[in-house]
Amino acid sequence: MSENNENLSHPAPVSFGEAFKYWLKLGFISFGGPAGQISIMHQELVEKKRWISERRFLHALNFCMVLPGPEAQQLAIYIGWLLHRTWGGIVAGTLFVLPSLFILAGLTYVYMAFGDVKFVQGVFNGIKPAVVAIVVFAAWRIGSRALKNNLLWAMAALSFIAIFALKIPFPYIVLGAGLLGFIGGKLMPEKFRVGGGHGASNKQYGPALIDDDTPPPDHVKFSAARLAVLLLSCLVLWGAAMLLLTEPTLRDMGEFFTKAALVTFGGAYAVLPYVYQGGVEHYHWLTGTQMIDGLALGETTPGPLIMVVSFVGFVGAWTKQIFGPDALFLAGFAGASVATFFTFLPSFLFILAGAPLVESTHGDLKFTAPLTGITAAVVGVILNLAIFFGWHVLWPRATEAAPFSGSFEWFYALISIAAFIALWKYKQDIMRVIGACAALGLIYTFAI
After folding, report:
1. Whether 290 contacts 276, CB under 8 Å
2. How far apart are alpha carbons 157 and 381 in whole angstroms?
3. Do residues 126 and 441 make contact, with C-beta atoms less than 8 angstroms apart?
4. Which among 52, 109, 406, 418 counts the fewest CB atoms within 10 Å?
5. Is the dihedral of CA 394, 400, 402, 403 positive or negative?
6. Residue 315 contacts by C-beta under 8 Å, 6 or more apart in sequence?
7. 410-424 vs 430-447: helix axis angle to the nearest 10?
8. pLDDT digits over 342-364, tens only?
9. Helix (H/G/I), strand (E/B), else coil: 205
10. Domains of the chain by residue range
11. 3-state secondary structure of 325
């Protein structure tokens, strides 16, 4: 494809308004999880619009891959910052999640207000076993890509035992795995030289606005003064938001989701056990079954899957009736907004503070060993999450004291198996699988 590309003209500069329209559109169409969202951006920004070159795109993505938080949203912040300075990054990152917040808040209201309606129950009855299959598939997909030797398999197994049997909190597992990866990278580098990002590509799509050899503008050059102002601004913003949260439940959410944002290595599936431990077991904002339903809603809406935190915030504030029994929607939306704000604020800081340092080198980033260790641990954590979800779906009347009490839901087990096969063997789109499972659940609910 190189001959045609050589004749392509250089793209015209992108106005702030044009970029704003694209980021807003992306917020409404960013389905498919991180892989789907990154693919959408690559197709539009690298192949069609040519706002950024393939190599620069992947260079930015490599940095986002090793940060806690949603890498697709962080990539949008990075490219927005490259194009239009700090405000470009803020707009890109905000519009990536804002549509999802409003859509998910509306769906959560329907879920809380009309969840007892048989039609709604039927739809969720079908979606829940699909979620089990999706989480198992996520564990398989990450494991098959990341666990390239017996040592990494052993780390994944230790991670599973730590969270399943020993009930060790997720942040400690992440820190321990990162430390083991760091040490292992020094002692056995060949065992840890397998993860950490996307390789370079030789594909060419023609000249790009931000090309491989584009001279860096002033705003991408590192400045200690600019970094200090940015850190202070984020700290003041976080502190001001916390001071405004005088309601105890919302304040707890601000503190909790700030912590969650700092341990989201490995994507949303990896941090869900931590959100479960806090939201279900510690604060009692929602039940385990509601957590599964929230993940199901998160899978069916645009935006990062970690947006499930807005569901947790909505349900928690609604359940606690923080503004009284007559203002449940207002309470829920406040909880969802607080959860979203504190979860995503660190992503802006990580990119806007770190990107100038990353832009100073256009070579490969050499921090893969700790990431490889964390990724191995994440596989074990996700497997534990799949077992937890599966237990709730297949033995819905069981308790921790009697873990297999009540009848076994064989029909939902079959749906989970079929959904996994559709994802794994036939490479079906997640949205199609969820839609088919919802239809089966609806039919079965009305048939029994």
Report:
1. no
2. 9
3. yes
4. 406
5. positive
6. 108, 112, 285, 286, 290, 294, 332, 335
7. 160
8. 999 999 999 999 888 877 755 44
9. coil
10. 108-200+218-447
11. coil
